[in-house]
Amino acid sequence: MSFIELMQQRYTTKKYNASKKIESEKIKELQQVLQLSPSSINSQPWKFTFVSDTNTKKKLSEVSWLNASKVIESDTIVVFNRIDNIKLFEQQIEEELPEAMVNYYKEFIKPKPEEEIKAWFDKQVYLAVGVFLSACAEMGIDATPMEGIEPKNYDKILDNENYATLVAVAIGYRDNEDFNQPNKKPKSRLAFNKVIQTV
């Protein structure tokens, strides 16, 4: 399948087949995809937690609002965290990045208020979410991005010190009866000429 065909076929999964598991090799590949994700100045202000433990998933389901069943039935929940400790982030880039990148941060990002710096971190994490969803489609894995969760409670359950949960993605394989599949509910998007402009 071409990438366009994959994008036409992928959808937000609403019901998972709890008995169908993702092969461990594919999980490792998805972990590598996230490790390789792009970010501004290669800042990488993130951590990604793969949760397949049944007891932990049950706890997460209880703080996932309408997404509870997806958390329980999917194979794995991937939690996308941004770094929440600016000093720790600055230490990280001093150790890992070239001087030019560190100087960019110091000149253009560091002078901003803390809230804006963390919002910049958030943008980098969402780049990784997009890459991850595309990788899942390419690998034939179904996915559900979920902002409908309680981030602070996710942090408590996962002992997220110095990091903050932004979004979680359930991954696994769809139930054949899932009503949201494109063959049951056609994909709905704005018209091409409303969102694409050529200059």
UniProtKB/TrEMBL annotation:
Keyword Flavoprotein: yes
Single GO molecular function: oxidoreductase activity, acting on other nitrogenous compounds as donors, with NAD or NADP as acceptor
Entry-linked InterPro entries: NfsB-like (IPR033878), Nitroreductase (IPR029479), Nitroreductase-like (IPR000415), Nitroreductase/BluB (IPR050627)
Cellular-component GO terms for this entry: cytosol
Keywords associated with the record: Flavoprotein, FMN, NAD, NADP, Oxidoreductase
Gene Ontology biological process terms in this record: 2,4,6-trinitrotoluene catabolic process
Residue ranges constituting the Nitroreductase domain according to the UniProt record: 8-173
Cofactor(s) for this UniProt protein: FMN
Similarity comment: Belongs to the nitroreductase family.
The protein's name: Nitroreductase/dihydropteridine reductase
Record organism: Tenacibaculum caenipelagi
